[in-house]
Amino acid sequence: MVTTLARRQEPRYRPVPWSPAAWRQALYLTGSIPVLLAAPVLVAAGFLHPPKWALPLLALVVVFLATPVLTAVQRHRLRAAAGVDIPPQEPRTRAGLIGYARSPATWRQLAYHLLAAPLLAAGALVAFGMWLAGLVYTLLYAYAWTMPPQSLLGHGQSWPPDGYLPHRLNIPVDVYLTLAGIALLAAAPWLTAGVAALDARAARALLGPSRAEELQHQVEHLAQTRTGALDAADAERRRLERDLHDGTQQRLVALAMRLGMARAEPAGAAQAHQVIAEAHEDAKAALAELRNLIRGLHPAVLQDRGLDAALSGVAARMAIPVRLTVDMPRRPSPVIEAVAYFVVSESLTNITKHAQASQAEVVVQRAGDRLHIIVSDDGAGGADPARGTGLAGLAKRAASVDGTFEIVSPPGGPTLITVDLPYAR
Q1: Is the pTM of this model over 0.85?
Q2: C-alpha distances out from residue 294 to 210, 255, 288, 297, 299, Å
Q3: Region 269-284 average pLDDT
């Protein structure tokens, strides 16, 4: 069973020399230097060989045409090593070379490779040098005895030399270098974190979509989610109509027929009493179906006591054991609560109807500004949103509030549903 879900974010840590994250970030930046310098080195190599005009021009043309490949490499580097996911926004090459050259994305990416990348590589080199010097000087006493006595690092050398101060301090140079190494190690993580942050920011600004393109994408996404929300609302309306027609309406019709039969019987007849008793049972069943229908629309306990109490009621009514974990320091917005409730309720209903499971588990927890929901079971698997089990409607309901819905259900099980919603809406 899966009980936790961690959203991938950029690593956060205190920049201290003993932090493993600081060392990993330093290694990541050091390994990024050759990639950052690929385009500048290629251009510089063209200027170092005669004739003076042919090779530089050829190098620039090669870098210009290879910009999409270099950009893909940089995106992969940032995603794999730093956890920074930059949306792809490749120049549109369908219009030919002229359209490629006129694309603003091409020139933003070229600016990153030829201008920003060398500066970031220089910063990474400085950070690497600070780490290296800090280690060398801090560990000086571990190897100073191996150095020649007359050398600067030799054990026992004093500072300052004779004649520089009226009173000689007789402080070994080892002490000065060790203190300098400690200071460098203390400053190196901060410089490393700063260079890494600049790297991520420059990549987002120059390798990702522009602000106008992001706004256009948001408008398109909003249009799609609006359509999805309308489709989900229409599907919900049809479901309510079907439930009322096939369930409650049929019971009310049967109730009316039984009452009519009882009315037609002579007063005091035993058969009339039996018909009235059956009509009473039909009335109770119809009331129970109406209560369930109303509870499914918007349960009162959700508004009064929150998501934890509402989901506890849903889990208690299931035909199979459901283990529920809700970890929220405070209640989310009412819209998010409603979406989370319906997602969990419908998912559990699908499990009991179609999954042939013996148990299920629900985990609801807050992580930053997001609400994570995990629903899993040990059933037969093979759940497919395209087969009309209500999963497509759940995905549209989650998308209507800028959330995500994912399902993994291989044949033979288990089935894992993960939903990520904004905490406030």
Answers
A1: no
A2: 47, 21, 10, 5, 7
A3: 69
